[in-house]
Design goal:
By secondary structure, the chain is an all-alpha fold. The protein contains seven helices and no strands. α5 runs antiparallel to α6.
Length: 131
């Protein structure tokens, strides 16, 4: 792995964060994320997407959105995966308006949509209760 292309440390930390997240060990994943920041190890879109997904899998929407906002504030560009993860997270909680807001933001920022984006929106509307 070239040191100049993707910093080795960033790649290694992303791998650790993902591993701990997959095992449900959020505190350990966050520990490595904080360690990255404390040691000036660059974070990237993969770092944030991994953590947002970890929070989403645990239903911790507020924490995921906080990271999403931090990501944008730190000029780390969200991508299709970022938005799809958040739209899906809101959809799973029945928060349709929030999902649509993110979808519109995605389009406004020229972030490409894909089949997953539209399937998530269709499922979200399909699961909505009709009274």
């Amino acid at each position: 792995m070239k040191q100049n292309a993707i910093p080795t440390k960033t790649f290694s930390y992303n791998t650790l964060i993902n591993m701990y997240g997959n095992k449900g060990l959020i505190d350990d994943a966050i520990k490595f994320f904080n360690e990255m920041k404390q040691n000036n190890i660059p974070t990237d879109t993969i770092t944030y997407n991994t953590l947002i997904n970890i929070y989403g899998n645990k239903g911790l929407i507020d924490d995921a959105i906080k990271l999403f906002n931090e990501m944008k504030q730190n000029n780390i560009p969200p991508n299709t995966i970022t938005y799809n993860t958040l739209i899906n997270m809101y959809g799973n909680k029945g928060l349709i308006d929030d999902s649509i807001k993110l979808f519109n933001e995605m389009k406004q920022n020229n972030i490409p949509t894909n089949t997953f984006t539209y399937n998530t929106l269709i499922n979200m509307y399909g699961n909505q209760r009709i009274d």
